[in-house]
Design brief:
Layout: H1 2-17, H2 25-56, H3 61-110, H4 113-118, H5 121-163, H6 165-174, H7 176-212, H8 214-219, H9 223-275, H10 281-322, E1 344-354, E2 357-367, E3 372-376, H11 383-390, E4 398-403, E5 406-407, H12 413-418, E6 420-424, H13 434-438, H14 447-456, H15 460-464, H16 483-495, E7 501-505, H17 513-527, E8 531-535, E9 547-552, E10 555-560, H18 562-568, H19 571-587
Parallel strand pairs: 3-8, 3-9, 6-7, 7-8
Antiparallel strand pairs: 1-2, 1-4, 4-5, 9-10
Helix pairs in contact: 1-10, 2-3, 2-5, 2-10, 3-5, 3-10, 5-6, 5-7, 5-10, 6-9, 7-9, 7-10, 9-10, 14-16, 16-17
């Protein structure tokens, strides 16, 4: 029952996968014609050899010369057609590979944050590589090896039975045995392939984490232990590969021995028939040529079952990405977001990653266009979650969020996020030029717009001191810049979108005093006329906000301006006292 369900699933997935191949019907037809010609030419070669050997007994050199010319012509034509067929096959292979990559990468970009939280970057990359390449390789083997093999077998068997039925039956007796061996080995090979994918996924998931957090690794002096962990995983996977190679080698040797045994039997019986002058030496040579060429295609065809089983693993990987549940997709009635004024309303909003861990409970909030609202509170209070919900990176468990009176679920997500600028604590910059990093959200931005955004972010001066100015490549994650410089570039990147809503998520918390001064000055200019949400632990950065919301345990417990909250003497006043106590004590 389980095997039947597995086969049914494979057929369904294979049918879907053919959709990536069907656009290339014209090229596939051309390849089919070429492979047919190659198979026919290959099947004629033993007949040319028969002609040559039969002419040797006549003592006439002309016949020998004609036979050799025929042999040369057949091989030249076969190589020409085979080369063209191979080039066309690779073109289709690369196009299918590109189509699969586009489908899976597009899906990965659109899947919600919950998917990316559950899957590691290294794991996704490993699955993507092994899944796509494994499937394309399997399909190439099936599509471009099976058809010529079948054609060659049909032609060869027809000629063999015409040459000598007795020898043909001897060879055919051995022909099914490689298929039986191949089917016997296929289940183990499929299990091994799945196990290898799992092992490599775990290995490179950890390796990606190590490289991403290399500073932490070095700080704790764990380079050797991480290297040993990685190499131990690699060695374990390699041991599995080697065991598999050993088994596959044994299976291949068994198949080859059967082919050799078939040829030896054919040679023994054929030699006897030549001695009795029932067939010519040329006929025996031709027959042995067909017998030798027969088991290659036969083994290729027996490998199809194993290839299909391996392809099923690759297809499972591909469709696990494409079919991953997306509960955040745009609704059919969702419309693009046009110009907005920036009014934001949270109405009875609650959110939880799971039932046992509520993050927000009953958030009610109305922010006027152009208002600056600060969110403060302890870690885990739900400040960054509010920012994520506003960008619709998650949907509320209950309640609704509206911008200018329109529910976020009625807006197309991409257009919504185009109108929200975000500056986070650890802004991701790319290993690209300064210019391209600033224009990341607006690739069509002109040089003047990029420069204006950089000036507004207090970044222009340090950019001009870089070796190539705006054309300087800043390294992975902006590693060639200081923290303050990276933050000012991220501000310029947010500013060039000219967003009506701005989110500043701990934008200055990791900066020294001088860098913070430059960044804070830039932020004050950027916030003018925009609805702004400031998320901060450092309370000195929120003093000037129009309104401060104090969150604790996922709920808003206080709201008001800095002065009003101090007068109340509640939780916010306690936070201010805690942050200022150290400075007051030191000054005393």
């Amino acid at each position: 029952m389980e095997q039947h369900e597995s086969n049914r699933q494979w057929l369904t997935q294979a049918g879907r996968a053919l959709g990536f191949i069907s656009p290339h019907k014209g090229l596939l037809t051309a390849i089919s014609v070429l492979t047919l010609l190659v198979a026919v030419l290959g099947a004629l070669e033993p007949l040319a050899m028969k002609y040559i050997f039969d002419q040797l007994g006549t003592g006439v050199f002309t016949g020998l010369a004609v036979g050799i010319a025929m042999l040369i012509g057949l091989n030249l034509a076969r190589e020409a057609f085979g080369g063209l067929s191979n080039w066309l096959a690779w073109k289709i292979r690369l196009d299918v590979n590109q189509g699969l990559l586009e489908a899976t990468v597009t899906r990965l970009h659109h899947l919600p944050m919950t998917y990316h939280r559950e899957e590691t970057v290294g794991g996704i990359m490993t699955k993507l590589d092994r899944g796509v390449n494994g499937f394309v390789g399997a399909i190439s083997d099936i599509a471009f090896n099976v058809f010529p093999s079948v054609v060659y077998l049909v032609i060869s068997l027809f000629i063999m039975f015409n040459l000598d039925p007795t020898l043909s039956f001897i060879v055919l007796f051995f022909a099914p045995l490689p298929a039986i061996i191949g089917m016997w080995a296929a289940d183990e090979q499929t299990r091994r392939e799945r196990s290898l994918v799992d092992k490599w996924t775990r290995i490179f998931s950890r390796f990606n984490e190590v490289l991403t957090g290399i500073l932490t690794v070095k700080s704790f002096a764990t380079e050797e232990s991480e290297k040993e962990r990685f190499m131990s995983g690699v060695q374990g996977a390699n041991r599995l590969v080697l065991r598999g190679v050993g088994k596959d080698t044994g299976v291949g040797a068994a198949k080859n021995l059967i082919g050799i045994l078939a040829k030896v039997c054919a040679l023994a019986v054929g030699g006897y028939l030549v001695i009795k002058q029932e067939i010519t030496a040329g006929t025996l040579v031709a027959f042995l040529g067909y017998a030798a060429g027969l088991f290659g295609p036969v083994q290729g065809l027996t490998g199809v079952y194993q290839t299909i089983r391996k392809a099923s693993v690759s297809l499972g990987i591909i469709f696990s990405i494409i079919d991953a549940h997306d509960h955040m997709s745009d609704a059919p009635h969702a419309k693009p977001v046009k110009a907005i004024s920036g009014e934001v309303v949270f109405e009875s909003v609650s959110f939880a990653y799971n039932e046992t861990r509520p993050i927000l409970t009953g958030i009610d909030l109305c922010v006027s266009p152009g208002e600056c609202v600060a969110l403060v509170g302890p870690s885990g209070a739900g400040k960054s979650t509010i920012a994520a919900l506003l960008q619709r990176l998650h949907d509320p468990t209950s309640g609704s969020i509206r911008i200018d009176g329109v529910d976020l679920k009625d807006m197309k997500q991409r257009s919504l996020r185009e109108r929200i600028g975000v500056v986070s604590q650890d802004a991701l910059l790319f290993n690209d030029t300064v210019k391209n990093n600033i224009a990341y959200g607006r690739p069509d931005a002109g040089t003047d717009e990029i420069t204006a955004a950089a000036k507004a972010a207090n970044a222009h001066e340090f950019i001009m001191r870089l070796p190539r100015g705006y054309d300087t490549v800043i390294g992975e994650r902006g590693s060639l810049l200081s923290a303050g410089e990276r933050q000012r570039l991220s501000i310029a990147r947010a500013l060039i979108k000219d967003p009506p809503i701005l989110i500043l998520d701990e934008a200055t918390s990791s900066l020294d005093a001088q860098s913070e001064m430059f960044v804070q000055d830039a932020l004050e200019r950027v916030m003018q006329g925009r609805t702004t949400f400031i998320i901060a632990h450092r309370l000195s950065t929120v003093v000037g906000a129009d309104r401060i919301l104090v969150l604790k345990d996922g709920a808003i417990i206080e709201t008001g301006s800095h002065g009003e909250l101090l007068e109340v003497g509640g939780y916010y006043a306690t936070l201010v006292e805690c942050q200022s106590r150290g400075l007051l004590t030191a000054a005393a």
